[in-house]
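Q: Here's a chain of 1060 amino acids. Please give me its 3D structure as tokens.
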Amino acid sequence: MPKRTDIKKILIIGSGPIVIGQAAEFDYAGTQACLALKEEGYNVILVNSNPATIMTDTHIADKVYMEPLTLEYVAKIIRYERPDAIVPGLGGQTGLNLAVQLAKKGILEECGVEILGTSFTSIEEAEDRELFKELCMRIGEPVIPSFITNTIEEGVEAAKKIGYPVVLRPAFTLGGTGGGFADNEDELRDIMRNALALSPIHQVLVEKSIKGYKEIEFEVMRDKNDTAIAICSMENVDPVGIHTGDSIVVAPSQTLAAKEYNMLRSSALKLIRALKIEGGCNVQFALDPLSFKYFIIEVNPRVSRSSALASKASGYPIARVTAKVAVGMTLDEIRIANTPASFEPTLDYIVTKVARFPFDKFSDASNELGTQMKATGEVMSVGRTFEEGLLKAVRSLETGVCHIYHKKFDTMSVEGILAYIRKGTDDRLYAIAELIRRGVDLLHVYDNTKIDLFFLEKIKNIVEMEKVLKENVKDIETLRDAKRMGISDKFIGQLWSMTESEVFLLRKANNIFPVYKMIDTCAAEFDSKVPYLYSTYEQENESVVSNRKKIIVLGSGPIRIGQGVEFDYSTVHAIWAIREAGYEAIIVNNNPETVSTDYTTSDKLYFEPLTVEDVMNVIDLEKPTGVVVSLGGQTAINLAKPLADLGVKIVGTGIEAINNAEDRKCFEAIMRRAGIPQPEAEAITDIERGVAAAERIGYPVLVRPSYVLGGRAMQIVSNEEALRHYLKNAVEINEDQPVLVDKYIMGKELEVDAICDGTDVFIPGIMEHVERTGIHSGDSISVYPTFSVSQKVKDTIIDYTIRLGKEIGIVGLYNIQFIADDHDMVYVIEVNPRSSRTVPFLSKATGTPMAKIATNVMLGTSLKEQGINVVVPEEKKRWYVKTPAFSFAKIRGVDSYLSPEMKSTGEAIGYDSSLRRALYKSLQSSGMTIVNYGTIFVSIADADKQRALPLIRRFYELGFNIEATSGTTKFLRDNGIRTRCLKKLSEGSTEIFDSIRKGHVNYVINTIDINQHSSRLDGYDIRRCAVENNVTIFTALETVSVLLDVLEEITLGVSTIDAE
């Protein structure tokens, strides 16, 4: 059947800001789907509130609405645009839930909007646990025994019937939020309370635990002719019990016997047919390793995280095909490269996905893994063997390891490590390798982890190879074998007492280089060439090197806090600009969730780790004109110097300029030369010098390591004791790793993203942060244009930006952060000689394709030649607000107090002609619950009480009840505000927690005194409780002030007839 012609306009709902459990894979899927529908001639309307994505660029859809993803806004857009149809399955759980709400409220029917692809009934059957169970029983597929419960007592009853251990799964939550395992009634009551609170319909599924079963996933596709194919099977290395987003996953599955594989494949196809799903779908199975018994865990009737991985693993563009199937096309009509989409891909390589966790940022959080997802991103690697793939993935993670070895386990006893591996953690793999090094029997490891012996054998092979390397130092044949297994130059260097570069040169002298194989979806049975390559140490090279001029762009690796999808945005725009300028654009990256690793984006894609070794191998083969490092965040910038030392030409901002901005001494010299004031500061290399420096500069001081991204390990300290504690515990301090001590200045924070071509500078706009200094720029609300600073401050900022761009020697993008104090003095906090996380937001707000302009500058076209003759264009008339989105609820133990250390995982946008309304939309988009009535709970540090008073009075005048801790209560009552006093935990009462848990409290406002930095204070427990019960928490008074502006805007007041 050809595509439908009765439909002209299609609405697509995106997935909103990035949170743990819903990351950049939906940007990739959404972008692909929008382009596929436009390709077929449809008019595409997109709604998505995430400014950091390629998907929300204006040319991806015909119209882009970056409005909050809530029922009222989407309904408004539907009524205004009158689309003929809606595609619900591309915006993750957010998009699917919204489509379900629109259907239930009758809005789709009222406006005559049809649901395309998977029908509303099918979505309900797959999503609603009870209906799904009935369906499975009807078609004879096994499901896990379970009961639906709506109260804690029902949960206890259900668990008695099923028998412990049980697992709890709240309905309609994302990434398993609020779920967990319970081994007895006490644990069940504890988890159940939280789970019921987090489920939007207060419903929790209690089911039998099948921990220890193998977890297998199938990605399947069906069209309306009932042609159904299995695209890819994936196997979790960790058994059931760890969320598949956190587990190491391999594709195709490795340990299934032919009978098991066929049994699960036909079950998945039977299911997708019974559910009548049209498009892509993901089915998860639990398989008993000791028999042929299996259960169906769940079905996702939408494009999911696994489908992004399956697309990249198999080269089969699931989202693109899903979009075309949705408009009535059949699989045999849709072409992929040179084959129809009805062919099942066959893989002659192994893909390994390893998750990237935020525990390096959240050192207090528990790193134990369970059914709730905790990873912020993932890396994927491709190899010929599991060993090679695993080692490539491990060194792609950028967690400071280059091999399956972690020094943390050196000092632990065998018994200690065996106890440690019983629970899933982010570093269990390294612990297992250490046990094997110490000669522990594999069966012993299997009993403690239930990880299949096949995988344990492979890890053992790697450990055996380490021994061979130690015994044959500098032996060329051993080097060849080690490289074939995937062991890195760096680790070989550690064993052979050589540097990474020396190992590289030894390989070069003996011509030991990898060849590149193409990801070929048909295992070479047909000619289906896609320029999508991976390295392996074999004979035949499939990467055809052209004689065109080439530029290699380095991507930004896995998504983590501090380096999100914003950097992928700049990378993709650069590739487009490079292709447009007539060069061959080549990308090196390893993140399966992003648009940059879609093989249609660039001329050639190398799926490789971003390390000196792996990038050099590509450079050695391709011999590019130059390499772009300034767009892949800190990942790529950190590769600049080692690559330049090996003779690679860096395009754009050079090594010297990067050093000028990042090395403290050079930077201070430049600031002096340019005559720009800077907060007093000193770089120190030992603790005593640090204490002396702080004495001289005067407390409070800001301390941080040099060369960081996302403010890692940054702190404000206000006395000597706190400073000593920080220097001892938070950072490694030595000659090579100095720590910076800066004078901490209170003031307004502003930032600019600018482009310099060596002679001219272009500044699209200045952004002002709502929160004052001391909160990381990625965690503050950012507004363009500025809303409260004088023209003098703006002029100074523009002047400093121009001077610094030229003095440092920037060619391309750079970002500068400023502080303006109360006397309009402007200080420079830092200069980043690369694209920053605000580039996509500012590009969209100002309508300036910044990454494109900057790329052309790097390729040698000046700003004037691009027709840019002004330094600062006229400011826009509308207000644009960027608000951070946090994922505190996902990770137990993280303190939600905002500090100079970045904590947000994503961002949302709001825009309007009124600043207050723009702020309101932005807060709504970021997922904050905004109500204009109810109760606020306040606990304010003494230093902030005077500043907080007028704010709390405004809440009081809006009709809110005020509850507070004893100190704050006394202060408020003295100032004439009626306040209810609640005792703290340390005063022997739990009434604060009871009030929050019962749902009485709408907002918690809590500030702390920076002198009392013991994190176990009452404030920590109050904040944690608020986060776990989904109550909005504020730790900065500026944010509270913004909220009040918004509440006053949306609240109609009441007064007597004769009031003034």
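Q: Can you summarize the key feature?
A: The radius of gyration is 28 Å.
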